[in-house]
Amino acid sequence: MSKETTLDPDLYPTLPTTKPTAQEDALAQWFAKQHTQSIDNLEGAARQIITLCTTLLTVLLGLAALTADALPTYMNATVIRWLIMVGVLALFSALGSALIVVFPGATRVTLNDPKDLAAAYDKLLAFKNTGLSIAIVAFGIAMFCLTIVILGALWVV
Question: Fewest Cβ atoms closer than 10 Å to its Cβ: which of 91, 105, 110, 150?
Fold first, then answer.
């Protein structure tokens, strides 16, 4: 004879559970995939900023080097010169920050310690996220300054 044992609910409380729906499972898998691909996505975005910054710097510096005549009159305005200078410095800042994001570096972890691996991943993710955020803000400042310069040049011409 087997004797049934029941657990006292006061001593061992349980929570009612239900099986996750297909939508909940899909959402959990999507978030897990996003978490593991975050660093690749950040580095991809940083590479795009690097490409944009180098292209814009090449165009700006190339135009400055190829001018045989004196600068146009609107370029003599102090505001325009400051905006160009701030824009170029912001492009270099964005370029530097984006390069830091994609620069490979050694990460020291204990491979058989899941907590150490998770902490190292989170630290690396936060570092790359901060670097990309700085690059995006600097790129935005550069685009704002250069847009004002272009609109000012079109207004004068």
Answer: 105
